[in-house]
């Protein structure tokens, strides 16, 4: 029997996706199944169970979670301690954590990395703006904290977008600390052929590269 998903979501028969909503079945197979029920070779209950089991088994294969309501999916994920979407986006999340670890390590060494860049341009690493927008303490999440953070990432951030952190979150260091040589290259890469700056320089700390 051939099943597909995503072509029809009948509003008059809406139910959980794992119970078959959004799945379609080829008509000849349905007619054959009804014939087998009619002549007693298959019971109606067994046929129903087989179809429901197929929908459940194919849920992850067909990526049915992408059709779920985001709020409902996140609630189910929290209750279950994880979901297919979290598993799917875990590599991106691990990459985010690796980047956060590296950024945090550099920010703790302002003598070696005296400059920092963020969404608003170039600063000195010890600038009050950098300190204000950087967590006072950071450690890579583990255990239940990791599960909660992965849930938040998977259900609020599109890994395919250009965003590298959680929207509005201060839990992760965002600034990239640089050596003086790296900062000079960063400035050069953002300076036009006529000398115009394609970046902002913090007016508070007025970094001199």
| Percent range for β-strand residues | 5-15%
The biggest sheet amounts to: 3 strands, antiparallel
Low-confidence stretches: none
- How many helices in DSSP terms? 7
Share of helix among residues?
40-55%
The strand order across the widest sheet is 4-3-5
Straight-line distance between termini: 68 Å
Mean pLDDT: 87
Would you kindly provide a written description of the structure presented here, covering whatever features stand out?
This protein is mainly alpha-helical. The chain has seven helices and five strands. A three-stranded antiparallel sheet has the order 4-3-5. Helix 4 (84-107) packs across helix 6 (143-156). The longest helix is centred in the middle third of the chain and has 24 residues, at 84-107. The radius of gyration is 26 Å and the shape is elongated. The chain starts with a strand and ends in a 20-residue tail after the last helix.
Please give the structural blueprint.
Layout: E1 3-5, E2 23-25, H1 27-38, H2 44-61, H3 70-80, H4 84-107, E3 115-118, E4 121-124, H5 128-132, H6 143-156, E5 176-178, H7 180-189
Antiparallel strand pairs: 1-2, 3-4, 3-5
Helix pairs in contact: 3-6, 4-6
